[in-house]
Amino acid sequence: xxxxxxxxxxxxxxxxxxxxxxxxxxxxxxxxxxxxxxxxxxxxxxxxxxxxxxxxxxxxxxxxxxxxxxxxxxxxxxxxxxxxxxxxxxxxxxxxxxxxxxxxxxxxxxxxxxxxxxxxxxxxxxxxxxxxxxxxxxxxxxxxxxxxxxxxxxxxxxxxxxxxxxxxxxxxxxxxxxxxxxxxxxxxxxxxxxxxxxxxxxxxxxxxxxxxxxxxxxxxxxxxxxxxxxxxxxxxxxxxxxxxxxxxxxxxxxxxxxxxxxxxxxxxxxxxxxxxxxxxxxxxxxxxxxxxxxxxxxxxxxxxxxxxxxxxxxxxxxxxxxxxxxxxxxxxxxxxxxxxxxxxxxxxxxxxxxxxxxxxxxxxxxxxxxxxxxxxxxxxxxxxxxxxxxxxxxxxxxxxxxxxxxxxxxxxxxxxxxxxxxxxxxxxxxxxxxxxxxxxxxxxxxxxxxxxxxxxxxxxxxxxxxxxxxxxxxxxxxxxxxxxxxxxxxxxxxxxxxxxxxxxxxxxxxxxxxxxxxxxxxxxxxxxxxxxxxxxxxxxx
Length: 541
What we know:
This protein is mainly α. The chain has helices at residues 59-72, 76-81, 100-109, 120-132, 134-157, 167-172, 192-197, 212-230, 233-242, 244-253, 269-272, 274-286, 315-321, 326-332, 355-363, 365-370, 373-376, 414-420, 425-432, 454-458, 465-471, 502-507, 514-520; strands at 3-4, 304-309, 313-314, 340-341, 349-354, 401-407, 444-450, 491-495, 534-539. The chain has 23 helices and nine strands.
């Protein structure tokens, strides 16, 4: 079996849009702006479109984004790898209610190819990122250290603006298994037809829309096609979301205008939010330090590598012989839809595993493939997905189990609760008719546990968050910093500061990439930073 290196770390994260979107009075601009709809961050020019600053919030748009956010809160990756105790209030003296002149000046100072227009809608989104959803933005900053190098490498390959990477934040919140209400899927939210046209494989067993590397390549190619059509990145981004047909109709209905803000009200409601949210995400990531937003990294160490599989393989076979949870296996391999890798000698597929178990897999591969093979692949054929009896899709039998009622508390999510009671998240949803992982504080949840352990689990209701986390061997506080190593006098070093990411640090040195910093400092998968750490950058000249 051939082992290959591949940067593929499929973590989930969270979309940052509030359930409420309060219209705020615009502050007096330090620059003179009168009777205008918008201000271009590049040119400070204006366009003649009326009533822009008085536009009302769009409740439907808020509901769509809130629904996405709620559906991601209970993901396995978030509840397992991050400390997200929202019951602990962080009291930081971070900037609030900055004047418009500050936002405008900062957007002007960003060196970007795509125009970063500033207006009231953009400001509302900026405040979402920097004030109202700070904890979630910090998770996204940590996740960007994994995904942005993949995005940038692909965008550079096609000679596209690197800031396009921020579009994935708006589309999926960097969640490779994100699925929209209309069926768009993966990091880059491809619809089925578009994905097939971009040569992504979608079958009953495989969905390459969920493969970070392949989906990013397809997204870059598709965005380039859209830019070739419109010659404008705002319109290309809008068309990426709603399709060229809707953008073309908006242009026709506006009398042939081709400025995004001039066709704003002609676009579908959901699409209207994407360009301003993209601009706001660019601002928030470029100026996260100024807003005291600190990247959150996973609590537990996890570096991954890839092996190529060349025969049918079920996740249950792997879990039976290698020490790995099935949920973790699914999180690392989101492209496989039914826990089955439909590989053949003529068509191998990748399997991503943590480094601490990958050697075990390689050493036991013959045993793993042979384990209960007839059960999973009778007569060495794939099980018909319509008749599959995989336990992943079948609710657990509650016969002989005791019912425990748990009251949802602030900070809880489906992932946390299922781990505290040692039940599957899918069963918890089934028992309580939970849709999109949406639960509310005070809600009563029925949970079925072994009869002899009923008394133990009934005590969970009275536990604090920290006690519940401790019961499953998890800490409720961030991982402590690691010890530093002796410095090599032949190299230049950088001292990690509060809020730094490898991507940020690489930008400070001409010709130095985040990958090079990882290699020089033996960092696994671009993570492991801590304040005060000395990073080897380059040899002294």
